[in-house]
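WARN retry 2 of 3 for item q-0093 after timeout on previous attempt; input resubmitted unchanged.
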Amino acid sequence: MSIGETLFPTTIAGSLPKPAWLAAPQKLWAPWRMEGEELTAAKDDATLLALKIQEDAGIDIVTDGEQSRQHFVHGFLEAVEGIDFDKRVEMGIRNDRYKAMCPTVVGPLHLRGRVHAREARLARVHTRKKLKFTLPGPMTIVDTIADAHYGDRVRLAMAFAALLNDEARGLAADGVDVIQFDEPAFNVYMEAAAGWGIEALHRAIEGLTCKTAVHICYGYGIPANVQWKATLGAEWRQYEQFFPALAASRIDQVSLECIHSHVPMHVLKLLQGKDVLIGVIDVASEEIETPNEVAAVIAAATEYVPMHRIVPCTNCGMAPMRRDIAAAKLGALARGAALARRKFG
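OK item q-0093 returned
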């Protein structure tokens, strides 16, 4: 097996909903409900709870649930010197799909120190499962920040890639088994993704010996993304424009959206040689998938990906979802994978 000894090992894209006592529920960018040492302790508690929810559901490769980050990109940026969070600019991100108030790069970029050591080490100590940790990808960071210093998207991306590499090396030393870079911007800037997007990822994974992954989805289940998907037509062909370049890359795993999408399943064959994290759980719907539905998507994927390279996953992060719905969906993910194992094992 390419990942452990289990056929169809399950995982999640990365994030889980935060408890209501930590941040306002069902919101992105939700403000913390406390501060200082109380907030630090609450983040620790939420991280342990996220691990427990995944383990109880039967997930094989767990994450910290991104409980210590207000946002998957800005949770990293908060530790970077050279960014002014008081100088926020309203930007249309993901090619103007939606607006966000973004901080500004005002000088050379440097890490103040380790970014996610606390939650990674906490998670590693408290689970015997394989542990995945997520970081924002360089292209997606560039698409989510204003630049008043570098003056060039590629230079800026490579600067961030170097910082990501420093943190990724630290996470690997902390005992993380899989480091995943989240690149939803790849599905928007396809030509650039196949070029400098992958080049920046290579810089971000330099020297790593653990598994590396890139997650490329069509976004959280928020209205702006749902509306955008409705404009993409009967077939979503974005993936096939850069999957061949990813297949030739040094990234080990590719995570993609699949269930309830219009992605033609045959594009999976373009990822030859990679572990493929198949999205079998829809994060844009509150309807709980049945195990049979999950198993059916896995079965369809086996037509194009070797069974030992399939990792059933969620389509995207679950941060904006109701916690009870998210937990039920994790259970469906695990039970569906178990059904598929009985069929193919």
